[in-house]
C-alpha cells in the first residue's frame, strides 16, 4: 500500500525537491500543501506532476492544517522565518512567530492522526555558542519546534533533517566586478577560510527524505545532515570558474552588509563556532544511500549562470 506523504512548502526549494523525488519513486502518494494552490508556482507544479493532490492550508490556521492532514501517513514540514508575514510579526515583537507555525503543524498532525513528521530543523546557536549568540531567531525557532516534536514522542514519531547552507545563496550573493566588468564576485560576510556545509537544496533534499522514509526505525528521533561537504567560500568561486570558464573570486564583505541584525549575528557565529558547531552526532547514512550529493562544480554546470538573481 502506498504511503500518503503531505509536503508543507511544496512550492519552495526543499518541498519542491521532495515532491520531485517522491513523484519519481514507487510507493508514494503525494499531497502538496500550499497557502495558495492557485498561485502561478503551484499551478506550474500541478501541471508538471499531474497525480499530486493540492490542498489549501495556512500555517497560521490550525483548522486548515488539520483538515489538510486527514488520512496522511507522514508529513514533511518546513517553516520559513523570512516569509513576509512572519517577519512582520517578529518586527512587532513576536519572536516566537516561526515556532508558532511549527507548533501548529505538529498539533494539527497529531489531531489528524498522522503517524510521523519529518521536520527541517537547525541547531540552536544560543546553545552552541554558550549564550553568546542568542538572537539568531531563524535557528532558535526551528530548534524549538524540534524540541516540541520530541516532547510529543508518545503521540507522533519525529524525524529531523538539518540542511547545510544553500548553494543557491551564492547566486543571490553574486555580482559582476566593477573593476573589470567581467570577473564574477561572490560577496558573503564570512572569513575566507571558514568551512561551511553546502547543499544543492533543489536536488539533494528529496533523496535524504526518501532515505528516512525507507529507514524509519534507523532514523527515528535522529538528526540527519543534508550536505555534500564542507567548503570555504573561495572554493565555490573556484568551482564556478572550473564549471563555466569565467573568472571568479570571493570577496568578504562586512557582517553588517548582510542587512538584518540576525543575519549579521549568524555569519559572526558561523565564523566563530561553525554552522553546526562541530557536532558529531549526525546519523551516518551517506555510504548506504543510493545517491551522490551534488558538488559545487556540478551545481554551477547545472545552473546556466547568466548573472545575479533579481
Automatic annotation (TrEMBL):
Species this chain originates from: Coemansia reversa (strain ATCC 12441 / NRRL 1564)
Cited CDD domains: NmrA_like_SDR_a
PANTHER family reported in the protein's UniProt record: NITROGEN METABOLITE REPRESSION PROTEIN NMRA FAMILY MEMBER, NMRA-LIKE DOMAIN-CONTAINING PROTEIN
One Pfam short name: NmrA
Name recorded for this polypeptide: NAD(P)-binding protein
Keywords in alphabetical order: NADP, Oxidoreductase
UniProt entry tagged with the keyword Oxidoreductase: yes
Domain annotation NmrA-like: ranges: 1-283
Gene Ontology CC terms: nucleus
Amino acid at each position: 500500500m502506498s504511503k500518503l506523504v503531505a509536503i508543507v512548502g511544496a512550492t519552495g526549494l526543499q518541498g519542491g525537491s521532495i515532491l520531485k523525488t517522491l513523484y519519481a519513486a514507487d510507493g508514494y502518494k503525494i499531497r502538496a500543501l500550499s497557502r495558495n494552490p492557485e498561485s502561478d508556482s503551484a499551478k506550474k507544479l500541478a501541471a508538471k506532476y499531474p497525480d499530486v493532490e493540492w490542498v489549501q492550508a495556512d500555517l497560521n490556521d490550525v483548522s486548515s492544517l488539520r483538515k489538510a492532514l486527514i488520512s496522511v501517513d507522514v508529513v514533511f514540514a518546513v517553516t520559513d522565518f523570512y516569509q513576509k508575514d512572519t517577519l512582520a510579526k517578529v518586527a512587532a515583537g513576536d519572536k516566537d512567530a516561526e515556532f508558532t507555525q511549527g507548533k501548529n503543524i505538529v498539533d494539527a498532525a497529531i489531531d489528524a492522526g498522522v503517524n510521523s513528521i519529518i521536520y527541517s530543523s537547525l541547531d540552536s546557536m544560543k546553545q552552541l555558542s554558550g549564550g553568546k549568540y542568542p538572537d539568531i531567531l531563524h535557528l532558535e525557532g526551528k530548534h524549538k519546534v524540534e524540541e516540541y516534536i520530541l516532547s510529543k514522542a508518545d503521540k507522533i514519531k519525529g524525524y529531523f533533517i538539518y540542511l547545510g547552507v544553500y548553494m543557491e545563496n551564492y547566486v543571490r550573493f553574486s555580482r559582476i566586478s566593477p573593476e573589470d566588468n567581467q570577473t564574477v564576485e561572490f560577496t558573503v560576510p564570512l572569513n575566507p577560510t571558514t568551512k561551511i556545509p553546502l547543499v544543492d537544496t533543489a536536488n539533494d533534499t528529496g533523496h535524504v527524505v526518501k532515505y528516512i522514509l525507507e529507514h524509519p526505525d534507523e532514523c527515528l528521533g535522529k538528526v540527519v545532515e543534508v550536505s555534500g561537504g564542507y567548503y570555504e567560500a573561495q572554493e565555490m568561486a573556484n568551482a564556478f570558474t572550473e564549471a563555466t570558464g569565467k573568472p571568479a573570486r570571493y570577496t568578504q564583505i562586512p557582517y553588517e552588509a548582510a542587512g538584518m541584525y540576525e543575519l549579521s549575528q549568524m555569519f559572526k557565529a558561523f565564523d566563530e563556532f561553525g554552522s553546526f558547531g562541530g557536532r558529531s552526532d549526525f546519523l551516518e547514512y551517506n555510504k548506504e544511500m543510493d545517491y551522490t550529493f551534488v558538488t559545487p562544480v556540478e551545481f554551477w554546470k547545472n545552473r546556466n549562470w547568466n548573472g545575479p538573481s533579481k
